[in-house]
Specification:
The structure is a single chain. By secondary structure, the protein is of the alpha/beta class. It has one domain: TIM Barrel (Alpha-Beta Barrel), CATH 3.20.20. Helices cover 39% and strands 14% of the residues.
Length: 318
Amino acid sequence: MQYRRLGRTGLKVSEISLGSWLTYGMSVEKERAIATIDKAYELGINFFDTANVYAHGEAERVVGEALRKYPRDSYVLATKVFWPMGSGPNDRGLSRKHVFEQAHASLKRLGTDYVDIYYCHRYDPETPVDETLRTIDDLVRQGKVLYVGVSEWTAAQIQEALQTADRYLLDRIVVNQPVYNMFNRYIEKEVIPLSERNGIGQVVFSPLAQGLLTGKYRKGAPVPENSRAADPQAGSMIKNLLTDDRLEKVEQLRAVADELGITLSQLALAWILRQPNVASALIGASRPEQVEENVKASGMTLSGDVLERIEHILNGQN
């Protein structure tokens, strides 16, 4: 496993990290989830990601239970706040009240005194940015949060947060968690350039496009049983991605991977890690074997010719 600095910080995270969205506490039973986390730790993954809203707190409980056996200083733990955790008017968003209460609720579910990274899970137009950042800055000063992050914020929203932090001498954002994969590259235009200028690293989710870039879904073939697309809870998002155009490109990308003697998943992850601003790619493994396959992408270097071929495929050029 290779490790990269997270933005301009001194924190080093594994190039492949393990997330818990749509898996732990939901479609994956606890024993298998813990076995998957154990395998990740064994293979050198030191970065584990969750959120309060994942399975309404259950994902945090599973991740916390799995990691409790390991020394706390040996791994990096991230969680998030924003989405509704109740039906009340203050049970959502990034107000001081909600952030403060959910931070402590997350720490309790995780069974730890602090989280390494605390993400604002989305931008909250109803709360002043200085209110949110000051609250998280207080948590940093209390030793309950080490680094501040955001997820799926636009470049303009990140810029606003940076300027606000500088104006009030608050802890700056050092990490952004956006979606990024071969079929969703929006961060390349504005988010990455802004982040590079300001020492912010990317920890990207959905690097395999909800499983589309694993190659398990084939054009004209039925959805495989036991796949995420077949899951009644988690399958709706992946089904929207299964267009004929994308599946045709997947077949061409599979041919590139075959020539290199690697899997399509490894090709997709290595392609993401070509970006120096990306600190880590979050995988959503539901079985230990998936972790074993995906970690092999760490340290892989794709040649200029291969990257050019991939670009031609993604742009629809033969």
